[in-house]
Structure to design on (859 residues):
């Protein structure tokens, strides 16, 4: 098998622009309809080249992301405001740390942060978990008309839901914090159950959340659970030889960079959370600890 | 011999060719580029296609059909006269009419065509479109996705540049979103999304319902004729609201009372809120699938008649914080792109440095069982084989094993969709594979899906132990036509008497007069009756020159009646 750089006749350390140019030149000599195999081989080489370049770029990017919280610290002369900024910034990401939020913030939260604050407030308010109208109001907020705001919100919202339900702590004992109607609304709005397999997301997280929200109640969105009774004769005669839907994905040579990035991102923030928790403990220590 | 490009739309269809000067639209017998996708029978039982049939929707609702694209690949059917027609048959009649227009225009027989389909058309709907082409006596060289065609038309203006653009196509019955990247003469579709059952006609339906409520009538209980008139009125109200802030119409109800119906832009926006919400999701998904931010999109291009609605434009402007472009007439873009594709397929020299690649807009896979315990399986799971937005042509395979030892048949169910359980996805068909009896072990099979440049799926199953490959035709979808059925239909439609092309102008004119007659009462009606009598008299004398003179004479008067907004 020829390597991608052989196929495209480029050097291994090429940039994206050169890869595209090489691909375009080769593509013009192939007829997709008459030589699908030739096309598929070229396309595979092109995809691999781009993945390779993306991977390379991501590695440099990640080092920057990891440093970010600390860089911000050193950026400002005023250490305390910088910490306040960071706290405000991540308020919705924090659990039970309300005492840390400082009233007059210098920092204006982004649209997504504002909405996530609303989400956080709603989930903690009495009956909030079941207020379908209040949840719908957030999801229908016109500030989410903007496509970027919406993408960011969906990401943040998903992470938040995973986080408060113990996904990242691998805690399986957390009970669903939403009532069924609200969970249905959320899954339907984001298409998390009916509209999947996007290259953008890792399906594992949706299944995990769906299990959390619907399994205990023996109910899944869109009546998905109608065929659960094991072997019926029509459907049960083909099975995935890897025995698990997701092993199959894991067999890919390289992990999906998007998924990879998603977890790396969280790792990076994990350091940051640890940092915040330490501050929280310090504050608690100085307020209560020193008195006694 | 040239290949023609055809846009077979829900409401309007067009045909074009690629020439040395680029895509060229071909006019129909009436001199229009747009041929309404309406089919009917004339009073003496001949087939009418286009404007004449569209006008007769109101006067002869039982003899006329429209909006059948929505039923492609289903068992839907309607009787016209004594014969029963499926959506494929009606579409074939539209195609045959366009073919005749092209032959008259080019002075040569036309046999090969590229037909555009909504990107979000599924496998069954695609095959139905191919069948319609065959029934019309056309060899369909390729199907092209509508937004991709639009991008080809736009991209041709800017061959050298490197840019990313988003095409939003809201037609009469379907909604498509595609993201394209162009570089070095390559036009690459990055992602497609859409809704095969959402279009301008749904906006008309909402307005019709609103008017029915205002009139306090039940649409289902109204006479077929009156219901058709009310819908026609609603359609025009909707279109007029695109340029005016408030519209007002007169409607003559079942009891011959004249009623005034008006609508403001604000009310329209309120009525269509739900539909606008449905437009959002596919756009968002395409952008997220392509991994883009708003700033990475250089242009948002609007295509399809329904994007003329200000509510749609402002929604898109809010989403992208930029004003969408529509430099090319939104009604013409797709057929122009189809012509470009025809040029590409016939290797026109003007297109030497252009290539286009498309994607499969939805995930294709099979049903599978997952082992949930020792010898315990749960069926109903969806196993993706080709993931959505994979570049085509593509071929992917998965390895599966039988659930039972000794199993002698594999019943493979094929689905399209994005849900983890097949029950929420679209069933495409099934294939049965004989398996050698093996009581000791589970048999292993490789299932290969191949998706070709037209977006048509083929499935191959190889039993590993015997190395036997079965090439499988997907069957068992209740809506799909078989090869023999297609042939039979071709022969039947070929026998139908189609209204002579050179008389179509007169039939269409007469249909307009008849519609105006229905829409008016009293003295005005008598005036129109007079025009009809005069026109009928001149028709009877069969002098072509004289007929066209009288037609031109009547035209301004008829137009004046039509502009009165009375239904
Ligand atoms: N000025 C206008 N304002 C609002 N709607 C309009 C206007 N002009 C046309 N339309 C609507 O556009 C639709 C037809 O658009 P178009 O001709 O692009 O669709 P089509 O190609 O026939 O359908 P499709 O592509 O969905 O199969 C109709 O619903 C029509 O009412
Ligand atoms: Mg169209």
């Amino acid at each position: 098998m020829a390597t991608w750089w052989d196929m495209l006749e480029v050097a291994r350390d090429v940039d994206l622009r050169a890869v595209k140019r090489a691909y375009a030149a080769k593509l013009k000599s192939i007829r997709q309809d008459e030589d699908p195999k030739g096309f598929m081989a070229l396309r595979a080489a092109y995809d691999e080249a781009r993945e390779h370049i993306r991977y390379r770029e991501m590695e440099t990017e990640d080092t920057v992301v990891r440093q970010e919280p600390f860089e911000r610290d050193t950026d400002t002369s005023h250490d305390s405001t910088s910490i306040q900024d960071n706290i405000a910034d991540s308020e919705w990401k924090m659990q039970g740390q309300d005492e840390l939020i400082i009233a007059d913030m210098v920092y204006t939260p982004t649209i997504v942060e504002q909405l996530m604050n609303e989400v956080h407030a709603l989930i903690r308010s009495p009956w909030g978990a079941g207020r379908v109208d209040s949840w719908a109001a957030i999801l229908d907020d016109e500030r989410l008309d903007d496509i970027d705001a919406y993408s960011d919100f969906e990401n943040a919202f998903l992470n938040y839901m995973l986080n408060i339900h113990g996904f990242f702590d691998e805690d399986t004992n957390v009970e669903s914090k939403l009532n069924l109607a609200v969970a249905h609304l959320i899954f339907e709005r984001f298409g998390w159950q009916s509209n999947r397999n996007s290259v953008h997301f890792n399906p594992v997280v949706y299944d995990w959340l769906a299990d959390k929200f619907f399994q205990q109640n023996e109910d899944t969105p869109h009546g998905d659970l109608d065929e659960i009774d094991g072997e019926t004769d029509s459907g049960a005669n083909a099975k995935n030889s890897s025995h698990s839907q997701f092993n199959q994905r894991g067999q890919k040579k390289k992990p999906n960079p998007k998924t990879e990035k998603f977890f790396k991102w969280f790792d990076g923030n994990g350091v940051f959370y640890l940092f915040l928790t330490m501050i929280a403990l310090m504050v608690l220590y100085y307020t209560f600890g020193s008195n006694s | 011999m040239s290949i023609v490009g055809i846009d077979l739309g829900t409401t309007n269809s067009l045909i074009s060719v690629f020439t040395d000067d680029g895509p060229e639209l071909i006019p129909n017998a009436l001199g229009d580029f747009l041929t309404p996708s309406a089919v009917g029978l004339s009073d003496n039982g001949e087939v009418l296609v286009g404007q004449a049939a569209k006008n007769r929707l109101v006067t002869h609702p039982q003899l006329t059909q429209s909006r059948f694209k929505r039923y492609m690949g289903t068992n839907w059917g309607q009787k016209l006269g004594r014969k029963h027609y499926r959506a494929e048959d009606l579409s074939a009649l539209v195609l045959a009419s366009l073919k005749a227009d092209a032959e008259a225009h080019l002075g040569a027989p036309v046999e090969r065509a590229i037909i555009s389909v909504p990107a979000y058309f599924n496998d069954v709907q695609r095959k139905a479109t191919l069948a319609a082409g065959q029934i019309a006596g056309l060899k369909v060289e390729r199907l092209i996705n509508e937004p991709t065609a639009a991008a080809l038309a736009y991209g041709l203006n800017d061959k050298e540049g490197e840019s990313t653009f988003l095409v939003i196509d809201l037609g009469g019955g379907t909604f498509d979103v595609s993201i394209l990247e162009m570089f070095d003469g390559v036009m690459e579709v990055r992602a497609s999304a859409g809704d095969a059952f959402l279009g301008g006609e749904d906006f008309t339906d909402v307005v019709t319902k609103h008017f029915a409520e205002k009139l306090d009538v039940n649409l289902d209980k109204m006479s077929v004729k009156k219901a058709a008139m009310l819908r026609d009125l609603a359609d025009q109200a909707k279109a007029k609201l695109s340029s005016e802030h408030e519209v007002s119409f007169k409607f003559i109800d079942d009891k011959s009372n004249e009623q005034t119906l008006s609508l403001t832009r604000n009310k329209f926006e309120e009525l269509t809120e739900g539909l606008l919400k449905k437009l959002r999701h596919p756009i968002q998904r395409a952008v997220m699938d392509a991994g883009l931010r708003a700033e990475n999109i250089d242009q948002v291009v609007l295509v399809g008649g329904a994007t003329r609605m200000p509510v749609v434009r402002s929604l898109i402007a809010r989403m992208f914080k930029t004003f969408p472009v529509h430099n090319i007439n939104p009604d013409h873009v797709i057929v122009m792109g189809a012509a470009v594709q025809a040029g590409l397929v016939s290797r026109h020299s003007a297109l030497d440095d252009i290539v286009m690649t498309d994607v499969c807009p939805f995930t294709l896979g099979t049903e599978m069982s997952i082992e949930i315990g020792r010898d315990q399986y749960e069926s109903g799971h969806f196993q993706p084989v080709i993931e959505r937005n994979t570049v085509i042509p593509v071929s992917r395979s998965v390895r599966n094993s039988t659930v039972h030892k000794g199993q002698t048949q594999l019943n493979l169910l094929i689905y399209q969709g994005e849900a983890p359980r097949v029950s929420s996805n679209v069933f495409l068909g099934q294939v049965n594979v004989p398996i050698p009896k093996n009581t000791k072990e589970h048999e292993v099979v490789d299932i290969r899906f191949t998706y070709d440049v037209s977006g048509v799926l083929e499935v191959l199953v190889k039993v590993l132990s015997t190395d036997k490959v079965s090439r499988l035709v997907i069957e068992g979808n209740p809506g799909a036509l078989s090869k023999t059925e297609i042939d039979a239909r071709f022969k039947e439609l070929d026998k139908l008497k189609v209204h002579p092309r050179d008389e179509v102008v007169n039939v269409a004119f007469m249909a307009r007069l008849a519609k105006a007659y229905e829409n008016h009462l009293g003295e005005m009606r008598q005036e129109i009756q007079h025009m009809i009598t005069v026109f009928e008299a001149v028709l009877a004398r069969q002098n072509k020159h004289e007929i066209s003179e009288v037609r031109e004479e009547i035209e301004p008067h008829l137009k004046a009646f039509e502009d009165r907004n009375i239904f």
The two ends of chain B are 46 Å apart (CA to CA). Chain B has three domains: 3-198+276-359, 362-481, 501-565. Chain B has 14 helices and 27 strands. Chain B touches chain A through 73 residues (CB under 8 Å).
